[in-house]
Amino acid sequence: MESVATGRKRVLVCSDRPRVCEELSRQLERCSAEAVVAECRDDWPAKPPALAIVDLARQGPSVRETCLELGDDVELWALADQATADRIVPALAAGCTEYLFFPINPDELRLRLGKHREARDDEPSFGRVAEGGLELTFPSDVGHLGPAVEEVVRVAERLGVSGSRATLNLRVAVGEALANAVLYGNREDPGKKVRVTAEFSTERIQVTVADEGEGFDPDAIGDPTRPGNRDRTSGRGLFLLRSLMDEVRFNDVGNRVTLVLRT
Amino acid sequence: MAYTIDEEQGVTVIEVDGELVVGNRQDLKDAVLDRLSAGDRDVLLDFSGASYIDSSGLGVLVSLSKRIREEGGELRLSGLNEDLLTLFELTRLDTLFQIAEDRHEALSAFS
């Protein structure tokens, strides 16, 4: 058997328990993150990722010592189980910013990872424009698509959008709009940005995605569900947008799309 | 995304975990094409651990389906969650692919 993993976010896993390392790595991979397992300090990569998870049952250095060694650029989360639950509060006091329970709840891990942002210049920049609103800008790199989509969905879920409206309609449509902007709008030119504005109200969610490309004619894209088109290998993104959103509007140039989902 | 490749009952079984999206679709495509080059013909893609497939991921599956047919093989899918099944139905790809509820059912359907 061969195993291959590709991931965007790298996470340092500090644990000396094989079962924990294995399970956490598996769950991180499911969230499109990559685990870097370190049983002890010697296993750390030269430059640790911006996020580390420390097993509170681990033997050796204390959470505070680990926190100091990792430095300010690395966010540290605690991993507790039933036997170490009483160590959570001290771990938070020692510098951990979040905690997870083992066995891992996949939904909780995904949610927490969605919140976590690495403080790098080329990461999507998030700025709340107002209560119930969100703005983000990122370079045209497909590696930014997942975190950007997760951020929009996370805010929507926090505001009460749930079930398939969040996990399917909003997630897929925003993902396709962002992918179109990066791949076809900006043609993956890292000098060009994608800008996203999301407005949330009790009646609807409106997401606008703008790229810096020359635009396109959305009416020129054929229907991929027609019998002769079903074995085409592209052309389904726009169809999914229109199928899953209540409204889809393009500007005249075709480099800005507005999606509306009624809640 | 992560995937594992195994063989069961003469069928190449690839279990896909996580998200099959534009950033990693080529990895899966290359893996399947490698197995075709090695002589494998019948392929089962098991999505029991997959949460999401975007339109470019769907495009790769269509491309692989065509290629496997050309080589005289058969591609089947299994383990799609409710959201993923909805995507296949919306895009009518449920009419293009043989989709089984689980791996066992898919394996028993290979001729």
Which sequence of strands runs across the widest sheet of chain B?
A: 1-2-3-4-5
Number of helices of chain B: 4
Taking strands numbered 1, 2, ... along the chain, how are they ordered across the largest sheet of chain A? 7-8-9-10-12-11
Distance between the termini of chain A: 45 Å
Listing every helix as H and every strand as E from the N terminus to the C terminus, the arrangement of chain A reads EEHEEHEHEHEEHHEEHEE
Query: How many strands, what sense, and barrel or not for the largest sheet of chain B?
Result: 5 strands, mixed
Name the helicity range of chain A: 25-40%
Based on Cα principal axes, name the global outline of chain B.
globular
Computed CA radius of gyration of chain A, to the nearest angstrom: 21 Å
Assembly context of the chains: heterodimer
Give a verbal description of the structure.
- The complex is a heterodimer of chains A (263) and B (111).
- Chain A has 263 residues and is α/β, with parallel strands linked by helices.
- Chain A contains 7 helices and 12 strands.
- Chain A has helices spanning 18-30, 63-70, 88-93, 106-115, 145-158, 164-185, 237-244, and strands spanning 2-5, 9-14, 33-38, 51-55, 75-80, 98-101, 125-127, 133-139, 193-200, 204-210, 247-250, 256-262.
- In chain A, the strands form 2 sheets. In chain A, strands 7-8-9-10-12-11 form a 6-stranded antiparallel sheet, covered by helices on one side. A 5-stranded parallel sheet of chain A has the order 3-2-4-5-6.
- In chain A, α2 links the parallel β4 and β5.
- The longest helix of chain A has 22 residues, at 164-185.
- Chain A is elongated, with a radius of gyration of 21 Å.
- Chain A starts with a strand and ends with a strand.
- With 111 residues, chain B is an alpha/beta fold.
- In chain B, 41% of the residues lie in helices and 33% in strands.
- Chain B has 4 helices and 5 strands.
- Chain B has helices at residues 25-37, 55-70, 82-90, 103-109; strands spanning 2-8, 11-20, 42-53, 74-78, 98-100.
- A 5-stranded mixed sheet of chain B has the order 1-2-3-4-5.
- In chain B, α1 (25-37) packs parallel to α2.
- Chain B starts with a strand and ends with a helix.
- The mean pLDDT of chain B is 95.
- The chains are: A alpha/beta (263), B alpha/beta (111).
- Chains A and B meet through β1, α1, α6 and α7 of A and β1, β2, β3, α2 and α3 of B.
- β1 of chain A pairs antiparallel with β1 of chain B, so a sheet runs across the interface.
